[in-house]
Design brief:
Number of helices: 4
Distance between the termini: 16 Å
Number of strands: 14
Strand content: 15-25%
CATH topology: Jelly Rolls
Radius of gyration: 17 Å
Structural class: alpha+beta
Order of helices and strands: HEHEEHHEEEEEEEEEEE
CATH class: Mainly Beta
Helix content: 10-25%
Shape: globular
Largest sheet: 8 strands, antiparallel
CATH superfamily: q2cbj1_9rhob like domain
Length: 275
Amino acid sequence: MHRILSKEEITQYHNDGVIFICQAVNAEWVDRMLAVVEFQLNHPSEWANDANPGQATNRLFTDRYQWRQNAEIRAYLFESGVAGLAGQAMQSNQVRFYFDHLLVKEPSTDAPTPWHQDVPYWPFMGKQICSVWLALTDISIEQSAMEFVRGSHQEGKYYRPELFADRENHPGSWAKAGAGEKVPDIEAHREDFDIIGWDMKAGDAVLFSAWTLHWAPGNRSQTQRRAAISTRWLGDDVTWFPHEGADPTVTQKDVSIQTGELAHDDKVFPLVWQR
């Protein structure tokens, strides 16, 4: 049975910009996605960001856009129920898929995921854009569980993209061309922000708006890997909006729609869920 969100959870999503979902998917999906993580760590794609390749500690690793090549990820998207969670939370009549994102921090990884909002990185505009971030390992805030600025999705701010594990020859250097105001120094002034987060068990998820400010600290555990898979979802009001600083993996040459049109490209952004 796929998870059904309560009215209280849907209201909380719209008020806070994020909700915690206990055991969001069947436990089998956790095992299957952990196997995908292990494979990608050893066979990174051209879209990987690997800050310390091959190391068992102090390694921040991400990989993306594998759903076309990886049947397990594709099955997760269409069969696990995560698309329905996104649709329910956003109160959208339909949900289209954007991309999959594996996120790993090995033990003793210093690098944080900087405070940011997602929407400036992506070639879309609209309020019904969200992520379902599924924990594949048990994690605490000290082990790099995510934190959010409650309600920040309602502020109407558009922040300049930040790089994850910034360094020379960064694979995401395209983000430096992005526009927007600078993200405030939230860590230096945490008392000025309404910050929320949760310790998580494998199979728990956080579902959050692409407009919500969020981050994750480094993984301070000396023994525990932090692994997650985040899937990105597009609702009814989302339009195609390519711009400087947007992720170049999918560009105008790849789609059949024009700027300002609804993101209704069935080949590139497949329809996964309908109310």
